[in-house]
Amino acid sequence: MGRYLLKRLGISVLVVFLVSVISFTLVHMLPGDPAVLALGSEASEQDVEAFRKEYHLDRPVAEQYVIWIREILHGDLGDSITYSRPVTACLAERLPRTISIGLPALILSSMFGIFCGIVSAVKRGKFVDNLITFVSTIGLGAPQFWLGILGVYIFGMKLKLLPLSGYVAPSENFGQYVYYGVMPILILSFGLLASVSRQTRSNMLEVINQDYIRTARANGLVEKSVVYKHALKNALIPVITTIGLQVRVVVGGSLMVEQVFNIAGIGTLIVSAINGRDYMVVQGCVFVISVFIVLVNFVIDLLYGFVDPRVRKSWR
């Protein structure tokens, strides 16, 4: 198992490195001078040159990357050109807002998505299956901004049950956090739930037609035991992969949901940084998101072994 862990860890480090190189290069290929955008078109040439020197923008891209990596190894993601503050401070302010919306959405979508997928597979061809399939299709096809606007119109403007926009941190007032966060969380979880539900249904249908499931039923095992103990466990690996792919929403944020509900999360931070050519913010956000996602995928690789004994054998 130690060899397997070292191999996966090495691959994870390589992926983070490649992502950092590609994102750094692409950001510097964007048109426009960040110094001029930050100081304004009427700034003097001396001020612009001093600004470039302060943020190392006067050096070659490769040298800028080496400086950036060296600062990261010392725990410094650099300073924001637009906000004139450390990038870590910007992330510390924005990232918790995104996580407080994305994490509940991921948990709800995973729980109810697996449950709906199981029910849909067990009740294949019946009304419940058709209903869940229909709703899942809508969830996969409907744009999030459209669902958000529809939710604001129905629950905010017509029924006046929920606020139109805004955000309150759970540490400040948990009741207000739930009140303001319930609609963006449900909108964000709708598409994730549909994806998990479809994947669970597809794998459950494949598993419950296997010979060992028919044998378990023929031996008189209770149907719940057959479904949850034998069938579900063998159908979970692709579902875990699907859930792992959705973790990017937790830390990367959903730009559409944040814009519709006026939540200043990391998604809006990245967009504003790209528009303002704020290299440090874009690079810092991409780096943190990539590290988080790679770590989650590393954990998912370990979960495969706990779910499937065949994977554990490959560790030896």
Characterize the structure shown:
- It contains 14 helices and no strands.
- It has 316 residues and is mainly alpha-helical.
- The protein has a domain at 88-275: MetI-like (MetI-like fold).
- Helix 1 packs antiparallel against helix 13 (279-307).
- It starts with a helix and ends with a helix.
- 33% of the residues are buried.
Q: What share of residues are in beta strands?
A: under 5%
> Element order, helices and strands?
HHHHHHHHHHHHHH
What name does the CATH topology of the domain at 88-275 carry? MetI-like fold
Number of strands: 0
Q: Please compute the radius of gyration using only Cα atoms.
A: 24 Å
Q: Name the CATH superfamily classification of the domain at 88-275.
A: MetI-like
Query: Overall pLDDT, averaged?
Result: 83
CATH class of the domain at 88-275, please? Answer: Mainly Alpha
Which structural category fits the helices and strands? mainly alpha
> DSSP helix count?
14
In short:
The chain has 316 residues and is mainly α. 78% of the residues lie in helices and 0% in strands. It has a domain at 88-275: MetI-like (MetI-like fold, Orthogonal Bundle).
Helix-strand blueprint:
Elements: H1 2-28, H2 34-39, H3 45-54, H4 61-73, H5 87-122, H6 127-141, H7 144-158, H8 174-207, H9 211-218, H10 223-252, H11 255-260, H12 266-275, H13 279-307, H14 309-314
Helix pairs in contact: 1-13, 5-6, 5-8, 5-10, 5-13, 6-8, 7-8, 8-10, 10-13, 12-13
